[in-house]
Every structure is written in C-alpha cells, then in structure tokens.
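User: Fold this, then the next.

Assistant: Folding the first:
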Amino acid sequence: MKITALSSFCVDFYPELNEVYVGGNSLNLAVQCDLLGVEDVSVIGAVGIDYWGSLIEEYLDKTNINCSRLYQFKGKTASNKIYISAEGDRYFKAHSWNGGVFDAFRLSDEDWHYVRDREVICMPAGDPNFSELLDRRHDRQAVVIDFLDYHSIQFIKERIGKIDISFLSAKPEMLDQLEKLANSSGKMIVATLGAKGSVAFYKGSIWTQQAIELEHIVDTTGCGDAFQAGFMIEWYKSQNIEKALSHGTRVASRVLGYQGGVPHDGAIKSRLNE
C-alpha cells in the first residue's frame, strides 16, 4: 500500500504544561501508518525555516516515512495552542491556530505528478489544496478526507462524490443525516463519537463500534488521526468494516495514554515567545 498524507504539519503548544509536541493531522496519520507497518508512507507539506520546523523534520527523520517532499519555506511553522480538561479532552481557545506557511503552501506540478502514482491520499478538509486534490484525483486511487468537527453536512455533500472515505467527528443528532448522505452518494462515511464509539455507513448498511473504556485519559489529541490510520489500513486489507472499526478503535485508544498526537521519547519544553 502506497499512502501519502497531505499537508498539515504543525507544532502543538500546551501553554498550561509549558510543553510542545510535533503534530498536525497529516503528521499524526503518517506516523501511525508507519507504526502499523505500512512500508511505503510519504508526506507532502511545508514547515517554516525556524526552530519548530527543524523539530518536525528531526522527528520525522527518525521514522521510515519518505519526507523528501516536506519543504522548508521562509515564514513560521504552523502552530496550535491546546488546552486539556480534567477529563483529558482537548479544547481550543480563540486564536489558538496560527497557520503560518501551511496556509500558503500549494503543491507544485511535480508534487501532483508524484501524487498520481500513490494508492491512497489522505488530507484534512481544511487543507488549502483540498479542492485541487478532488479535481486531480483519478479512479485508480483512493481519497480519504477528514472533515474534522467543523464542516457542515452540506459542505460534505457538495464534495463527497470524489471522496472514497469521509471521516468526521460527529454528534449523535447528525447520524440520521449522515446515513442518508451515505445512501444517496454510495460513499463510505465514518463518524467518530468520542466516548460513544464510532459508526460507519456504507451501501445501505450501518456498523457500530463501542469505545474502549480507559481508567485514565491523558490527552485526546491525535486520537482521530490514529483511528483513521487503523481503520483505513484494515479496510483496504480485508474489506471488512467491522474489523476496520475495531482496529481503528484499538489504535486510537493507545494515543489516549500520552501527551501529544504521536509517541515521543520525552517532552520538549516550549518557548512560546520564540
């Protein structure tokens, strides 16, 4: 399986802990795919020519991920300020996100040529390259999109025809609409519901999966990205949605036990004014 993740790379600041971790949807997902044994994982994106960009490159250099198309541009590496509730749930405050070079990055023609040979392309829907990816995709590859928790069902409906798997963090009251959309489009939709588990809709059928109960949750950051990696890999291997939901849930539960979206050897103390 040839998987490429586009193009969200950032550092996650934890102001209350005075710590920072590398992250971003694409980095988190690519790292989980690598940890799950996918031999051909690559990324495309940009970081700034700054300390945090070097930190991301240093982290990825320790993996088996092909980072030859992770570029360093003049400007700041994207960053996100994350706060953790007493229950371990992450939340954001106004102006938590600073897009930096992520907001300005666009794939080159050479990058798109490389993408054409990849079997699975993964991207968050907030990516500036999202529309062009849908225009350029071809039928021999799968496009997997994370709609996160802030895109409307109408937004998904207008684009789902060119997407093979749509993931989103949903609320229970959205499920009826998502079922109708999956049935009318013929596309797979997978909704994660936090502690209430997950639901998949595909070809007129519904699958549900309970969450794994944990005594203590450290941080939910990266949980959805890990779930997507586990689900996607199992689905393309077995074509079994029940197994895919179970695998995604197990992979996601591991992330809940540590700070940040991916495993680290240790915390890196942040310098938030840098």
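Now the next one, as you asked:
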Amino acid sequence: MPINGFFGNPIQVNVPYLDLSNNLRVKYGRNPKSIRNRLNRWTKQSVVPAMFGNYLYFDPAYIGRLGADATWAYNSNRPEQLNDGETFTTKRFECVRYQFEDSLDLTVEQAANFPVQKIVTEAIAMRAMLNRTKKMVDVATTSGNYASANVVTANTAAGGFLDTGTTANPVILNAFNYARNLIQLGTASSFEGGEFGVLMNPVTARKLMATRELREYLMQMGNSINMIAGNKDDVYWAGEGLPSFLYNAAVIVENATYNTNNIGAASDVQSYIFPDNTLVFFVREGDLDLEDGSMFSTFTQFVHEDMTVEAITDQWNRRIKFAVTDNFVGKMTAQPSGVLMTNIFS
C-alpha cells in the first residue's frame, strides 16, 4: 500500500516527510504568536549548524565603564589610557536530541478528506513543544542560574507581599521597578532595544488580577469591560484578566501543563509547568531569530534540528509509525538580564 505515493520494501522503509516537517516548524517551532507556543515570546532562538558549540557573552560592565579621563586637549598628543579590551565570557552549549512518536493503521489512506497524518504529527509536535517549554522553564526557575543579587523575595523587592498593595501603596509596581532597576544596572541599560517582560503561570496571574492594587486601577480604565469579559480580541488582553503590558512590562502567562503519568496509570494529573508564587523578569531582543550574535536576551534556545518528521511503514502489520525529532538545548545566556522573584504572596 503506498504512503503518499511511496511504495516501500516488504518489511519497512524510512520516509522523511518534508511537508509535514515544514508545517510543524511554521505552526509550532517558529511561531511566537501561537497560543500553543508562548515559549517563543520569552526566549530567543539561535539555529546552530552543529550540536556542540560555544557562544560569547559580552560583559555589559565594559560598555558602562568611564575610568580614566578621556579628555584630549587641542594641539597635544593623544593621551595614553588603560586599554581594558573587550571582555568576553565563552560558554558552551550542547544540544540534546529528543524523539516523540505515534502510529496509525495503514487504512488511514481511506480517510481521503481527512488529513489524519497532519493531525497526528501536529499532536506529536505539541508534545515536543511541551518538552521544550519544560526544559526552558527549568532553566528559568533554577536559582543557581542567576546572579545571587537577582534572586529575591517580594518582601525584599517590594517591602511586602504582592497581594497587600493598593494604588496608594503599589507593592506590585515596587516589585516590577526593583527588577527593572537590577537589570538596567546589571546590563548598563543595554537591553533598552529589547522587550522587558515578566513570566508567570495562570494561578499567579489570577491572584495578581484579584489584588486591590490592580482592581483599583482597573476601575479607572475606559476599556475595563473588555478585560473583565476576557475579550481576546482586545489589544490589552494578556490572559487571566491581566493586561498585555503591566507597568511597562510585557506580561506572559505560561499556561502549559504536563502529565508525568504513563498510559494506563491509575490517574492522570495535569500540573502547570511554571511554578506558582513565582515571577521571572526577563529581556528578549527584537525578533525571534538571533542573527547578530548578541546575547543580551535572558534565555536562548539553541536549535540544531527543528521538528523533523519521519515515518516507517510496516507492511506486514499494515501500520505506519510517525516520529518527530527535536534537537535543542536551552540556556540562560545573559545572567544579569534576568530576575527570579519568589514568595510573592502571603
């Protein structure tokens, strides 16, 4: 039986599916606007030709250093200055290969008006993106990845838990400003060309939206009815009632959930990948793709193989097995441009 017009040998044959692979890259791997893929809204991507390599991180302290007097008097020789040289830190990345699979009966070809193969591979791709998200969230929420001063509690950053604020005592605003100040000082304000954002899960987002501080602001907004109604077409809507920008920070509500139980387990429990009671402040430069080699974005995906779809046909058992291969690694590529804030609620 032919699969997409290809007749295999009597046992099996490996068939690369370029059209399906491209579909997954466009729809999931490379799409920052997909509701299924918030990951690409808070990370950069760097497509790498090799699975192993190094990246350079430019020390932002060099940019902001004004040491020796730079004055050059007229009709005098150029003054001698200490040449610090550009300070680079070389860090290594090593991509990890993952595979996700499923199978179909060969009679799938009878569904002429139903794109079964496309639907199945997209379902597999969602698992692959879930895996990417889980790996990147692990990077973002590991305190050891941050500078020690950039791991703070709400009490340290804002002088209180974030559910105790009002418009007269805006502790949420204080927390956001504290994080912004740390990042500005740590990067010599080099992130200004990018986007300053805050990452949280839906539980945290709902608690923030229920605070007196934000409800009092909401009461005074002309478009508050759209936010209360959760109008997704409204440009100010980010999810869970929060605006898309809060105190000049892009709000990303990471709602991905995962289930660690195997098929046939006594129960299936879904949990949010991003933890409760936690905020991550980050910087993401410009467009999705990392082209100029700069590393001021807080988090980067180094992608070597982006969702390749392959299939093996088993003629004897009349089955076709699909696999999606994803080869990447996530890194915190600019330590000073990230802040991890914990214990934000009482």
